[in-house]
Amino acid sequence: MKKIITLAMVLLLGAFLAACGSTNADKGSEEVTIGYFPNINHVAGMVAEEKDLYTETLPDGTEVNYQYFPDGSAFMTALETGDIQAGIVGPGPAMNHFTSGAEVSIVAAGSTGGTVIMARPDANIDSPEDLAGKTFISPRVGCTHDVQFEALMKDEYGLTSDRVNGEMKHVTGKPATYSNMFDTGNIDVATVPEPWASFIEEEGTAEVLVDTPDVAYGETLPAAVFVTSNELIENDPELVQSIVDAHKKATEFIQDNPDEAKTIAINKIKEITDQELSASVIDRAWDRITFTYDVSEEVLQEFANSSHDLGFLDEQPDLTGLVDKSFIE
């Protein structure tokens, strides 16, 4: 099995780069490339690769490649250009590209949960009501974790960010830097994806203010989704079914063998990023994540509506047709 790993994949958990792949019309010499990010919500991709699950479900003779990505935009571009045939990505990029006219479908989920709101211990924050005038950080403006935090604050506490002339100051930065920023006092609050929330807890630089179940869409919104192109669905639905079957096998393996799946995640993340997460960090992060392939179009639409209500999307989104559950039913 061929793996494609670029030289830029070092240093940080979020620094992942893509390679390339293709699909041939001749089923006997087919080549399928699967993309994912080496992070905790994409463990199904790591398990499928480590356990060689795609070769179990794809037609005999199929060559399977893997690509690792730095961000959702790069992933979706690779999907649209045919450099990859399917894989795991965050729901935001999938929805954004769909509403921009991309012919893509979400055919399964990857996981749910994993977003945590954390506060600096000496910032005089006892509850979210104390965040007026405080500085919070998110990975990017309007990203999944940003929307989850701002929807919670607006809907439950009537607080908004300075992006819309609100009371909270918003900055952006990589989650790997949050622990140091808490330690130096540069931020008061962060909306943190796992495993960085568990890493920060272990470092002791911040405390949990709002845990995953109480964040907006915390346990229902897919933190990762499995996508493919509409062209592949139309031209070769049997191939898509074989691809999704392998993803389902990987998800069921994680559910049935969590300890082995954790070991695979630690080793694969280290192999790709040259960073090793401790077993205690993985254990804590695991408790906040549910690995599932079931996906709800209704929850995705509600999340998209929140993005619009917060002003991250100019137009009211319509996700009708984005989710195709026929391959998991």
Structural summary, described in words:
The protein has 329 residues and is an alpha/beta fold. The chain folds into 2 domains: 27-113 and 220-327, D-Maltodextrin-Binding Protein, domain 2 (3-Layer(aba) Sandwich); 115-214, D-Maltodextrin-Binding Protein, domain 2 (3-Layer(aba) Sandwich), CATH 3.40.190. Helix content is 38%, strand content 18%. The chain has 12 helices and 11 strands. It has helices at 43-50, 53-57, 72-81, 91-99, 144-157, 178-184, 196-203, 230-235, 237-256, 258-273, 279-286, 297-309, and strands at 31-36, 63-68, 86-89, 104-113, 115-119, 135-138, 169-172, 189-193, 207-210, 222-229, 289-290. Helix 5 links the parallel strand 6 and strand 7. Helix 1 (43-50) crosses helix 9. The longest helix has 20 residues, at 237-256. Keywords: Cell inner membrane, Cell membrane, Membrane, Signal, Transport. This is NitT/TauT family transport system substrate-binding protein. Pfam families: NMT1_2. Residues 1-25 form the signal peptide.
